[in-house]
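Structure (tokenized):
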């Protein structure tokens, strides 16, 4: 069978090429190829074809025995890069539906946690789950994401909170990633510093335990090249986080910060240590956003957490206007963001924060790839991974306009048709 495939014609191909690397994006900056096609060889894009180029390739494939497989698109279709979800907690066991009901009845997130619910409830269930149970749960969530058009997905540990349980989670994420013909590309992140577990009264002693016994093993076994920490009153202090992140950097990890979700402090640490990204930022003020900009830290907005907790969205408009590179992610997790619908969340964030279509779509493609340091995807261009999706519509605006109710009818993952 030939490894060369020709797909089209598409009413529009939204390449996401040549966009500003940070700051605002007007819709007229989008490169749109009308009535063209996509030529792929194995798992890479060979060329994005104009209308005339596509028609020549079709003729060549039909009449000259080129061996090219032609996938003719008979529906109205708009193609774009596969979506990238750069911040999730999709590896977990159990549910927190009762917590959700309690929050709707007026209880706070912190009070629920103090009474035995919250994150530590998921920790108990995840610790007790077998590797097979965690794998099966992650596989189903990953497959769901792929069918929704997400072709790359970051997955954090952080519901184990012991050396053994964190390694179990990271092993499961890597095992699932070896099933990548069926799942999105899974990017593991070590978030052992999610909160202090009940076995430790002193958060700094717990962080030292991770530094001594977990991070060197994660590095040796190549289970993740990213380390994250939650800086918050209910988790870890800014000073503790600085020490932890600087140690992780010495080991060669990229460092990430969960910060400024409920209280300030995380964004300043992210800027100080040169983190790749600062994620959440719901309460960040303009001064701290400018600090992130000066340090070239990528901002990741997580509208799913705002929807799940009923709190304000991260100030994405302000982030863009101060010149930040802004990615948008689902934060899919069992507690604060159970929805997992990336496109819906991005569209709602855009509506409330007055983001252009270009800014919204860049936030879940090219700029999300930046937040994972992946330069081989997020755009449709020669030499990039053949990860792309298509929607049954005539114009790209329809994708965001329908706020997630319009699903992709075509999903290609590394050159293979999945949907």
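Design, position by position:
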């Amino acid at each position: 069978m030939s490894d060369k495939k020709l797909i089209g014609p598409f009413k529009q191909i939204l390449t996401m090429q040549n966009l500003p690397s940070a700051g605002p994006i007007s819709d007229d900056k989008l490169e749109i190829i009308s009535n063209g096609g996509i030529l792929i060889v194995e798992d890479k894009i060979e060329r994005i074809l104009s209308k005339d180029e596509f028609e020549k390739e079709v003729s060549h494939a039909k009449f000259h025995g080129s061996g090219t497989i032609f996938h003719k698109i008979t529906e109205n279709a708009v193609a774009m890069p596969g979506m990238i979800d750069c911040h999730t907690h999709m590896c977990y066991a159990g549910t927190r539906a009762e917590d959700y009901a309690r929050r709707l009845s007026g209880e706070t997130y912190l009070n629920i946690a103090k009474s035995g619910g919250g994150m530590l409830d998921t920790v108990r269930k995840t610790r007790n789950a077998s590797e097979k149970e965690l794998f099966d749960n992650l596989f189903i969530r990953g497959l769901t994401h792929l069918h929704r058009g997400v072709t790359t997905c970051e997955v954090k540990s952080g519901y184990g909170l012991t050396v053994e349980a964190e390694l179990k989670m990271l092993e499961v994420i890597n095992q699932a990633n070896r099933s990548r013909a069926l799942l999105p590309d899974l990017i593991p992140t070590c978030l052992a510093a999610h909160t202090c577990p009940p076995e430790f009264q002193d958060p700094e002693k717990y962080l030292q335990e991770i530094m001594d016994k977990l991070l060197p093993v994660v590095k040796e076994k190549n289970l993740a090249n990213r380390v994250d920490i939650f800086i918050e009153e209910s988790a870890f202090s800014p000073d503790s986080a600085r020490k932890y992140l600087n140690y992780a950097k010495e080991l060669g990890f990229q460092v990430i910060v969960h910060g400024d979700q409920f209280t300030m402090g995380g964004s300043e640490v992210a800027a100080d240590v040169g983190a790749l990204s600062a994620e959440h930022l719901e309460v960040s003020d303009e001064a701290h956003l400018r600090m992130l900009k000066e340090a070239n830290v990528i901002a990741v907005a997580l509208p799913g957490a705002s929807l799940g907790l009923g709190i304000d969205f991260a100030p994405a408009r302000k982030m863009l206007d101060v010149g930040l590179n802004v990615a948008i992610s689902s934060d899919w997790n069992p507690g604060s963001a159970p929805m997992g619908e990336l496109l819906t969340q991005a569209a709602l964030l855009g509506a409330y924060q007055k983001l252009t279509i270009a800014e919204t779509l860049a936030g879940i493609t090219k700029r999300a790839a930046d937040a994972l340091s992946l330069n081989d995807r997020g755009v449709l261009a020669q030499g990039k991974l053949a990860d792309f999706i298509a929607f049954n519509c005539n114009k790209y605006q329809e994708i965001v306009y329908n706020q997630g109710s319009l699903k992709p009818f075509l999903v290609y993952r590394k050159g293979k048709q999945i949907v």
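Reviewer-requested clarification: The chain is about 40% helix and 20% strand. The chain has two domains: 4-82+378-417, 83-371.
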